[in-house]
Design goal:
With 230 residues, this protein is an alpha+beta fold. It starts with a helix and ends in a 5-residue tail after the last strand. The protein has two helices and eight strands. It has helices spanning 2-31, 155-167, and strands at 36-52, 55-71, 75-92, 101-118, 125-143, 170-182, 187-197, 211-225. Residues 1-30 have low confidence and may be disordered. It has an eight-stranded antiparallel beta barrel. The protein has two domains: 1-31; 34-224, Porin (Beta Barrel), CATH 2.40.160.
Length: 230
């Protein structure tokens, strides 16, 4: 009996020693990502359409952005600030006439947030989907000089239309995105695709057919745990 107990205890001790490194390795693989602060930067292209008369003008604008992400095990809170560079033409409804206003627009800033939900991971790759909201600001908008367009009978009409031009520069929009991160130590390179509905709005400049979309590639860096340890 005593020898049997010694054999059992010996086998249990050997199993504990053998399994301890594997358990530690598995634990470290998840500890490096969950409950962490990530800061990142990215670049890509934003594709959108504007309505100008009977034309649907599509623009492919280079974009850059900075972001902040607070992770949990299965989800994360994500904030971002972004700039897109372009120069194109659009139109909005006129408050004083039947003809739309032809407007030259340049560049766009976006400030937004989304909730990222992580799907089952594959090795060190973490796919995710996100649902969020962004405030979109056209940097500059000016009446287009063209024959037979943008003419006003009175100064009051000109002032009313100028107010409409300014008001159409900003618009809040919901969006969805899908992406994947490759988590390696503190680094997390990622690719992301975003879709934002923007079709048919006469009071905003991104009003052509189809959706506004964006491809982005970037890098996130883990600056440490978000949970204070006592």
């Amino acid at each position: 009996m005593r020898s049997t107990r010694l054999v059992i205890l010996s086998l249990a001790a050997l199993a504990t020693v053998a399994l301890t490194p594997r358990a530690g390795a598995a634990q470290s693989a998840t500890q490096g990502f969950s409950d962490s602060w990530y800061w990142g930067a990215y670049a890509g292209y934003t594709n959108f359409a504007t309505a100008f008369g009977s034309e649907n003008l599509r623009t492919n604008a280079p974009s850059i952005g900075a972001e902040w992400m607070l992770t949990r095990t299965k989800y994360a809170l994500h904030l971002f600030a972004e700039q897109s560079y372009f120069s194109t033409t659009s139109s909005i409804g006129s408050p004083t006439g039947a003809a739309p206003l032809a407007v030259n627009i340049n560049d766009m800033r976006r400030l937004g947030f989304d909730l990222m939900i992580f799907t089952p991971e594959f090795q060190m790759i973490k796919p995710y989907v996100g649902l969020g909201y962004a405030f979109n600001f056209i940097n500059s908008a000016n009446l287009r000089t063209c024959a037979g367009c943008n003419t006003f009978a009175t100064q009051a009409q000109a002032d009313s239309n100028q107010k409409a031009i300014v008001n159409a520069r900003s618009m809040g929009k919901a969006f969805v995105n899908v992406g994947a991160m490759w988590v390696y130590k503190r680094f997390a390179p990622f690719a992301q695709y975003t879709i934002m509905p923007s079709q048919g709005k006469s009071d905003w400049y991104l009003n052509g057919t189809g959706f506004t979309t964006q491809w982005a590639l970037g890098l996130r860096y883990n600056f440490g745990s978000s949970i204070e340890k006592w």
